[in-house]
Specification:
Number of strands: 16
Mean pLDDT: 92
Structural class: alpha/beta
Number of helices: 11
Oligomer: single chain
Bound molecules: threonylcarbamoyladenylate, magnesium ion
Length: 368
């Protein structure tokens, strides 16, 4: 017989100053981490759900709270580069160079793990993902806890990542001991995950540090072919081998309503979205459109839009990134039946934006 545990716990809400977090509030959260509890906290990318990385039981609770598949490993967060030494068996010179250049910041490095890191954290892999976040609240929490903190994004598994404390409470309230509310996060998409255990440094997930920025330091940087998600076909037509970052095989970032992503030449994209919108409306569906600043006007013409989100301009990809997840969540709150999204350029932060949009769309990608 299986028993379903449905207990809720009371989630302590701690509002902190984002730049100078109050030490007494950080101490409360650090104490919870020490006792094996779970704390939501802001980073510069998205909110994380933290537990003591050395505490197997606490880490197991992260998976339970999120409904996360056990084979998807976690990123371990440190408060200073020296903390990485306890987590890895080897720190290649290239890693040191990247740490100097990009930490604190949205770059996660995949390195050979040390034996002490619990299997729960790495999902049994021989590698561990580490990063030092550039957020005063995150750094204060890790410093006060005096342990590395394992933390995935603080959303229910499969949902858009949280960029505010409200998002965290909506997904995980009653399942975690506390949330540190440091206001909305800045970057809005997750860190770049870079594998340094492959021959050529390989991006497993595009994110806050761009490929272009990495190339300046690394020269050569590869992109894992699984980055764009399921159903990727190899040149030979066969399916690719198992992804190196286990998280890549799962549905991600998805709002409740199906999202259709339309990519291609601008005027054709607009035309196609207008056609789809008209068709869905005819069948009584409520439609959201996620548009570029340049094209938003077209969707305001003819019919008053039910839901139109202007994500930002073609040249404002940082703005688009910052708005992306909260817009996807807003679509759900508005109760729309279908979301039609325009594609964005894939340079700079656009690579992370388009990766998340394509993953959220799953198979629903139209090239026009
Ligand atoms: O910005 C971020 O990275 C946020 C904040 C909270 O730091 N965290 C985050 O964690 O996005 P999560 O768990 O949502 O995504 C971690 C990604 C997953 O795709 C996972 O598969 C990959 O990193 N990952 C973790 N450990 C890995 C490893 N040892 N090898 C390859 N990929 C790994
Ligand atoms: Mg996540």
């Amino acid at each position: 017989m299986t028993t379903v545990h449905n207990h809720t716990i009371s989630t302590q809400y701690l509002k902190v100053h984002p730049d100078q977090p109050e030490p007494e509030l950080i101490a409360i959260a650090a104490e919870i981490i020490h006792r094996g509890g779970l704390v939501g906290f802001p980073t510069e990318t998205v909110y994380g759900l933290g537990a003591n990385a050395w505490d197997q039981a606490a880490v197991a609770r992260i998976f339970q709270a999120k409904g996360r598949p056990g084979d998807n490993p976690l990123i371990v967060h440190v408060a200073e580069p020296a903390m990485v030494r306890t987590l890895v068996s080897e720190l290649p010179p290239l890693a040191e160079q990247l740490i100097t250049q990009f930490w604190p910041g949205p770059l996660t490095l995949v390195l050979p793990r040390s034996a002490q890191v619990p299997d729960e954290v790495t999902a049994g892999l021989e590698t561990v993902a580490v990063r030092m976040p550039a957020h005063p609240v995150a750094l204060a929490l890790i410093s006060a806890a005096q342990v590395p903190i394992a933390a995935p994004s603080a959303n229910r598994s499969g949902r858009p990542s949280p960029t505010t404390a409200e998002h965290v409470l909506a997904d995980l309230g009653g399942k975690i001991e506390a949330i540190l509310d440091g206001g909305p996060t800045g970057i809005g998409v997750e860190s770049t995950v870079l594998d340094l255990t492959a021959g050529v440094p390989t991006i497993l997930r595009p994110g806050g540090v761009t490929r272009e920025e990495l190339a300046v330091v690394l020269g050569q940087v590869a992109i894992d072919p699984h980055v764009e998600g399921k159903g990727v076909l190899s040149a030979g037509g066969g399916l690719l081998a198992a992804p190196r970052s286990p998280g890549m095989k799962y549905t991600h970032y998805a709002p409740n309503a199906p999202l259709i992503l339309v990519e291609g030449e601008e005027s054709r994209v607009v035309e196609h979205i207008l056609t789809l919108r008209a068709r869905y409306r005819q069948s009584g569906k409520r439609v959201a459109v996620l548009a570029r600043a340049e094209t938003a006007g077209y969707y305001r013409q003819h019919h008053p839009p039910e839901f139109l989100a202007v994500l930002g301009g073609r040249d404002e990809l940082a703005v688009v990134a910052a708005r992306l997840y909260r817009t996807l969540r807003a679509c759900d709150e508005a109760g729309v039946d279908v979301i039609l999204a325009e594609g964005f350029p894939t340079q700079g932060l656009g690579a992370a934006v388009m990766n998340r949009l394509r993953r959220a769309a799953g198979q629903n990608i139209v090239l026009v």
